[in-house]
Amino acid sequence: MRLLRFVSAVVVTGFCINVSAAPVFKAGAFAQNITPSHLPTPINGNMKGAMADSVHDPMHARCLALSDGRSELILCVVDACMIPREMCEQAKALAAKATGVPAGQMLISATHSHSCATMAGVFQSDPDPAYLAELPGLIARGLTQAHENLEPAEIGWSKDSDPTQVFNRRWMLKPDQTVENPFDSMADRAVMNPGFQNPKMSGPAGPVDPDVCVLAARSKADHRPIALFANYSLHYVGGLPAISADYYGVFAGQVARRLKADDARYAGKPAFVGIMSNGTSGNINNVNFGGPSTLRKKAPGEQINAVAASVSDAALRAWDKVSWQSTAPLVSAERDISLGVRKANDTELERARHLTTTIPKDKDKDGQWADRKAIYARETLLLDKYPDQVPCKLQAHRIGGLTIASIPCEVFVEIGLDLKKTMPLDEHFTISLANGYNGYLPTPEQHELGGYETWRARSSYLEVGASTKIASQLKEMLAEIAR
Known about the structure:
The protein has 483 residues and is an alpha+beta fold. The protein has helices spanning 85-99, 129-148, 246-258, 302-320, 346-358, 372-383, 413-421, 444-449, 466-481, and strands at 6-12, 15-21, 26-33, 41-43, 50-52, 60-67, 72-78, 106-110, 151-161, 167-168, 170-173, 190-192, 201-204, 211-219, 225-232, 273-278, 284-285, 330-340, 389-399, 402-406, 410-411, 427-431, 440-441. The strands form 7 sheets. It has an 8-stranded mixed beta sheet. A 4-stranded mixed beta sheet has the order 18-19-20-22, covered by helices on one side. Strands 12-11-13 form a 3-stranded antiparallel beta sheet, with no helix packed on it. The longest helix has 20 residues, at 129-148.
């Protein structure tokens, strides 16, 4: 463990002696409201864009700042389906200027809620430019205020498990079954969300990760809860027709109440912040397609509340197991790597142009395409404008015996499980959709199976070997910061 020693000179009876003081570990948190002020506003996450004209619950950028006395780390989770790299860079630059914390020591990720205002254009949903212009400043305000709220603290990390809310959503077709994808191919062997007990399916195409990992901070003076930063590999829940932070927001409120963080004893102190980050959930949801279909239609938000309660139980069990520490070294590493873009060939581009000019849009309803082939044809043409290589920002952070990796993709669970197997310290988790958006990240083996998450579009465009390159880089970075 490396400690920064502060030395002051004290004169005593003509002698100068050195007095050394150990650095003080600090933590601070803040939840910045980022709910759009003007409605209706676009929301994304589906192949058709939609508009929200009401707010069920607010959107936030939830931030946790940590300082070991020599270095600082600020983690931020934004209620968004995905967040563009440019927006992350702008917010970090503003916060770095205000706090002095280098941008490489800030992590900004999206929850992947499908009921939040659009921040990145995907499929047929494009953001409101006026809202985009506001966001970097709002997010930077959250990062800066968390830094301003730093106070002497204790830190700890632990984990528990909740296997009841995670299921692999990709299922294998039986050998004698086929399906057609939007590119006129019958080669896919995996299907996303196949329906309950579909007789064409043989079983899930991959594993799950039931871990609920927790990074916890409390005040050193009175043990007041400062923040609970959790990580769970669940895509999202959904089910609300208005602006909503999904189960991530309900989770934040539930852990605050159950930790009694609003106790009157803490009046006048910075508010506790509960935070749920998205783990490696690119192929995971909370629907068990191997079981029977639910017969009762659930009320809006009912499933969100049920998932939040279940995952909160696990997170609080983990909180109770935390071994609190007054010191923990903070170390960060960041790399930008270049990855190839999967683009259409000339024949495929010609097909895409033909489809977008011959398949009519659904003019009677919303003026968008309903036909999947037309939707993916449009994506093919838009993706052709991308450069042949794109940057992909990777980060690795150490907090004592915990390591955190971040990837700007919807990461398949196999990748997160592999990183956990090779973790260099006591605990590890990976945050997806962090510091930008580079689409889905399947493994090469899952690419071979095809299916929605591999279909070429702005939502899935990295080279087939991207996950192998990313994992290799992260393992190097994690080893470096663990030394």
